Amino acid sequence: MMINPEQTIGNLIDKQGVSFIASIDECGFPNMKAMLPPRKRRGICEFWFTTNTSSNRVKQYRQNPNAAIYFYDKRYFRGVQLVGTMEIKTDDDTKEEIWRNGDTMYYAGGVNDPDYCVLKFTAQKGRYYSNFKSEDFAVGNCR
User: Rounded to the nearest 5 degrees, what angle is found at the Cα of 78, between the Cα atoms of 82 and 64?
Assistant: First the structure.
């Protein structure tokens, strides 16, 4: 059993170069996508990613905000899944906060590009996999 889920999982997340996000399509099926690591996180409660406003994923989250994110440590064959909700953020303050130099490679119009938005994931619970065992854990103080 994990003594400190926030520390154990936070350390795992911070060392990964890829993250996975899941949405639900219009037929109720899960859709998974590899993403760059989150731009920002608050503990294991909130995570911010960037994406295209015109993407299929944004369309799906607008129809159904239920989501999951997954991080996998290949070296030690361990991972963590967090489930919760995804919110599409298009306000200037959030976009400015998450913007990084070099993002014009993805969003040619800069921070005000209408095809640039931020996904904010808020966790409700999680499941940690390590040493061929798994355990559920609660995620607190996320609201």
Answer: 20
35 strand-pairing partners: 19
* Angle (CA) 37 42 46, round 5°: 75
Are residues 36 and 47 in contact, defined by beta-carbon separation less than 8 angstroms? Answer: no
User: pLDDT at position 4, please?
Assistant: 85
3-state helix, strand, coil in the chain (%, to 5): 20, 45, 35
Q: pLDDT digits over 52-85, tens only?
A: 999 999 999 999 999 999 999 999 899 999 999 9
Query: Which SS3 state, helix, strand or coil, does residue 97 take?
Result: helix
Q: For residue 25, with 0-12 CB atoms within 10 Å meaning exposed, 13-18 middle and 19 or more buried, which class applies? A: middle
